[in-house]
């Protein structure tokens, strides 16, 4: 299974590399950065819990004119600094969650329920060079309307994997809204080590909504040659923060990174169940932690990154921690 997945991703990356000629595009103005984020536990031959996430991000370039609404809204956010560069972006994504054994049509009630999440996000950020403040509004659907069951069944047929049989037990349809506020401090401490640069980026934030409600804080460490002015590769919520845009210091660059985040969970609909209807649910853990590490490669207008994520137990009857991988391909157009 893993070989087929990796081959498909490699083909996708190759097609992008052929479609965008860095040498030809280097001197032309860019409209923005398009990023594809794919998170999946099949990288480690697992198929359970948070099993898949796909998101497409679009961030207009720094040279693009800033819409007036973003400027007005940024000035209304009380914790945004008065000075800095205002950025905005958009995302579309789908996430899916399953119990430990997808071959059972009626999973035990102690298992995580089937659930899907289809959403769109509009985000606003203000960057001062050393600090990034982010505000995002996400709206979507939980339940059959998310089309997560159909998506997983199609993918599993393509890769000749087990047919997931329990989607009839998934959470009911429910509109979802999530408001995210995040602050990251880049170059909180920067130094050189063995001829390369290293920096530390702490972050903290709060998320409020009927899908997710939690407070989070953590730290990311980057090490590489001529570190670019970004905040790491983008991730799918919940996860450590990143940035959809990137500005590599050279035509070819690299860095390795590691980070951790702790979350105090108030609500997770994918564990607590539907807000206004009876549905399957499990007793969630109120403290959840992520540890991640990975590699970023920059080639002119193309960025490729891989992240390995280890997540602690999210519910009390969970057996084993969760591991999944995240691949991000970003291209400047």
Rounded mean pLDDT score: 86
Shape: globular
Beta strand % = over 45%
Summed up, the domain count is 1
Could you give a short account of the major beta sheet?
Answer: 12 strands, antiparallel, barrel
CATH superfamily: Outer membrane protein
Q: Indicate the low-confidence ranges by residue numbers.
A: 1-7, 20-27
Write the CATH architecture name: Beta Barrel
Strand order of the largest sheet: 1-2-3-4-5-6-8-9-10-11-12-13
Our Rg estimate from Cα atoms comes to 20 Å
Q: Write down the CATH topology.
A: Lipocalin
**How far apart are the first and last residues' alpha carbons, in Å?**
33 Å
Helix fraction?
Answer: 10-25%
Question: What string, H for helix and E for strand, traces the elements in order?
Answer: HHEEHEEEHEEEEEHEEE
**Class by alpha and beta content:** mainly beta
CATH first level: which class? Answer: Mainly Beta
**Total beta strands:** 13
How many helix segments?
5
Explain what the structure shows.
The chain is mainly beta and 333 residues long. The protein has a single domain, classed as Lipocalin. Helices cover 14% and strands 47% of the residues. It has five helices and 13 strands. It has helices spanning 2-19, 22-25, 68-76, 148-158, 269-272; strands spanning 32-40, 49-60, 85-98, 115-127, 131-142, 174-185, 189-193, 196-209, 212-224, 252-268, 287-299, 302-311, 322-332. The protein has a twelve-stranded antiparallel barrel with strand order 1-2-3-4-5-6-8-9-10-11-12-13. It is globular and about 55 Å long. The model is unreliable at 1-7 and 20-27 (pLDDT under 50).
